[in-house]
Amino acid sequence: MSVVTPKIGALAIVASVTLLLAGATKSSSSASARKSAQARPTFYKDVLPLLQDHCQVCHREGKIAPMPFVTYQQTRPWADAIKQAVQSRQMPPWFADPRYGKFLNDPSLTPQQIALISAWADSGALAGSPKEAPPPKQWAKGWNIPQPDKVVQMPQPVKLPAAGDVEYTYEIVPSGFTDDKWVQMSEIRPSSREHVHHAVVYIRPPNSKWLHNAPVGVPFTPSSFADAEERAEAHATTSDMLLVYAPGSEPDRWPDGMAKFVPAGSDLVFQMHYTTNGHAAIDQTSIGMVFAKQAPKQCVLTLQLTNHTFMIPPRADDYRVEVSGALPNDATLLSFFPHMHLRGKRFEYNVLHDDGAIETLLRVNYDFHWQLSYRLAQPRLLKAETRLQAVAWYDNSADNMHNPDPNKFVTWGGQTYEEMMVGFFDVAVPASVDKERFFVRNATGR
Ligand code: HEC
Description:
Jelly Rolls; alpha+beta; binds heme C; nine-stranded mixed β-sheet; 29% strand; single chain; 3 domains
């Protein structure tokens, strides 16, 4: 995706003044035209509130969108592009098929809001009176969560080359927590966003054997391990994830009474997947955490439905891969995060009912550049033995504009020209249950 920066110079301003004048001349010609001029939407009264609620999370200084939409001067040159982007529903980015499920973090505009923005762009993108503006939206400095109680940064920056593949890079950071912590909100902030394809922060409890021979506080890659088993183990852990980041993804904000558990003395393990873009850089990612004010009743666990054993034939344009499993214990389903690579096309989460009925909870029309989480508007209690299914479809044809090579068989792998099939999902369970215990089947479970 490329973005053309408009020339916000004298030319654009002259053009808008001309438009305003033309409009004014027309509307003064008759009373009815004047009335319609009064009804024209303005930036401050009509458009700014929508930008605040639906766009500024990305469109403000320092966030992922290349142009801020905070002031009139910043927004005015983009009026037509904004109209197009909202009419085509390219913006705000959201990929859930509206036929399935309702999601808390759905930023979509209503048809009325789209019509309002379009009318504003079509009628000269007027400023209106700043007196009618809503109060500016307050953001904690640089964060989309409230000011974090604790920020943990990778102690050493990672050097990124200008070109080529970069092996998954890890950095283990002692949390320094001397007592147990409940993390209610967290946000990952890369320092070189353009290079981060994904980042995962894992919670490594003090007794964990995972990566036990790896160095602490410095970047390393699994290929540096002499032992083959240790190399493989780097990519396979039962450690719970604190948070996943991918471009466009949101911070975690768990409802009151639910949080992620970080035992005292845990390490945070950063797993970084970098891509190169022609410019060498350094990255030093951090995670900000807001702690729960009191110990919650429920613990949030991130689980996954994964299929490693597929082979997508060359040029297949709708290749289906599925996986299913039964929940070992009761759990409240909160959210989903599907993960595929460049050939990803569609991803679905289903409940398989005993009578054969398939109930779709979420269907995502996948876009590799936008890996989002989807939070259920209504968390849903799933009884033990509920069968969950994830289904992924891949487009390995030449029609897929992201496809690096339609003539290849494609199998599981960490690089973006290989594929993945991971349906992450978050559940809440009683606070006393950790991930390992959750998978011990409860004898009373049906
Ligand atoms: C989740 C982050 C995010 C949100 C929310 C978001 N945008 Fe964007 N927007 C981006 C990014 C990143 C780009 C640049 C890359 C691209 O074009 O996809 C962009 C690009 C654009 C562009 C330029 C498209 C072009 O022609 O190149 C427009 C216009 C735009 N956004 C409008 C909006 C509007 C209006 C809203 C709210 C209704 C909105 N965006 C919400 C992230 C976001």
